[in-house]
Amino acid sequence: MLSPPKKIVIDTNVLVAALRSRSGWSFELLRQVGGDRFQHVLTVPLVMEYEDVQLRPGLVPLPEAAVHDVLDYLCATAIRQPVHFLWRPRLPDVKDDMVLEAAVNGQCACIVTWNVRDFAVASEFGLQVLDPKTFLNPSQGGWL
């Protein structure tokens, strides 16, 4: 019997990078969302953060409607996780605390971010923190 795919949380900076360029590890991760290699977890505060950042003028080269389509897809394919426990403040950036809370409450295995060093305390919760390239490449130490 196959084990279920591991659960992850995707940091906002990965989503920004994916929407800014179709060539790169962030876009590849986004392309695999909804597949069978991993499941991603979302909370309401994290979705609101995604939306706030992606809709900043000039940040991503997409029309607002396209950004909303991506966010709708992320919501449709995600495990929607209520936040039962707040773990704040644990990190220097309160926005990163939302990512950590989603991962801990969702019993995730990994946070995928380009700011790996910002999540040093994640190991206290048994979480791996990997950048998209490492996450997607077992030869790089990832687990997909």
Mean pLDDT: 90
* Alpha-beta classification: alpha/beta
Cα-to-Cα separation, first versus last residue: 18 Å
Helicity, as a percent range = 40-55%
Tally of helical segments:
6
Query: Strand tally, please?
Result: 5
Integer-rounded radius of gyration: 14 Å
**Order of neighbouring strands in the sheet with most strands:** 3-2-1-4-5
Q: Which regions have little confidence, pLDDT < 50, spanning 5+ residues?
A: none
Shape call: globular
Biggest sheet layout: 5 strands, parallel
Helix and strand sequence: EHHEHHEHEEH
Beta content comes to 5-15%
Structure description:
The radius of gyration is 14 Å and the shape is globular. Strands 3-2-1-4-5 form a five-stranded parallel beta sheet, with helices on both faces. The mean pLDDT is 90. The protein has 144 residues and is an alpha/beta fold.
